[in-house]
Amino acid sequence: MISIFRKIRQKLLQQNRVTRYLVYALGEILLVVIGILIALQVNNWNENRKDAEKEIQLLTNLQVEFKDNLKDLDSITIEVEEVIYSLEKLFDSFSKDPSPYLRDSVDRWIASGLQSPNWKPSQYILNSLTSSGSITNLKNERLKLLLYQWSRQQNEMLEVQLRSEETGEEIISYVKEFGSLRNIDTTHSDFNYKSSTLGKSNSGLLSDVRFENLIDDKLYMYKLTKKWLDTAKKTLEQLIEETNS
């Protein structure tokens, strides 16, 4: 094709047709420019297609991670509700003269209330996305906003969970000094413990205002934990919806 254009150009020059030659030369330049523009457009299209495929894969990975987190959250929520139930039972049983018939129940309630179910969602994909700066390249503005919101919620949730664990440790320390930790351990079927023969019953703790305050503290923190789990669930459901769209 180039040799044909060259022959036409030489023929025009030999015939001293300068005007036609210039028009032809301009046309030839125009064809080259158009060819370059087309090549650039094709290249841009390919790059955009590759970027779109990467984003789709990224959204898919995020969705899988969020769905797994949501499944774990539902399990932890059930455990948190069981802790709250036991703590509320204890809370309602405090009295100046607690019933001795509550002995076995108190041990079970304390054992269950001392559980510290914590939710630690996976953030591997999100952390990789954040550290690489790729989060700013996402086209879905609502998704970006939800991701920032999710990260902030997790930091706040971590603080709540750490304080919740501390309340459990405070209760254990108090029972060690004023109650019977052994009687609590007998409620665990795996331990094969027998009740203490020292005559120390944990039901007596139900008349102690200091123990009541410790139970109140943990109950408050786990109700706060339940509130945060409910908020996290709503955010996760929104994130899954956005990654799907």
Can you describe this structure in just a few lines?
The chain has 245 residues and is an all-alpha fold.
Overall pLDDT metric: 82
Number of DSSP strand runs: 0
Q: What count of helical segments does DSSP give?
A: 7
CA-based gyration radius: 35 Å
> The biggest beta sheet, please?
none
User: What percent of residues adopt helix (DSSP H or I)?
Assistant: over 70%
What is the succession of H and E elements? HHHHHHH
> Proportion of β residues?
under 5%
Q: Which geometry do the CA atoms define? A: rod-shaped
- Briefly note the structural class of the backbone: mainly alpha
Low-pLDDT ranges: none
Distance between the termini: 49 Å
Overview of the structural elements:
The chain has 7 helices and no strands. It is mainly alpha-helical. The longest helix is centred in the first third of the chain and has 76 residues. The chain starts with a helix and ends with a helix.
Feature tags:
245 residues; mainly alpha; rod-shaped
Describe the protein's topology.
Layout: H1 2-14, H2 18-93, H3 103-113, H4 124-132, H5 141-178, H6 181-185, H7 209-244
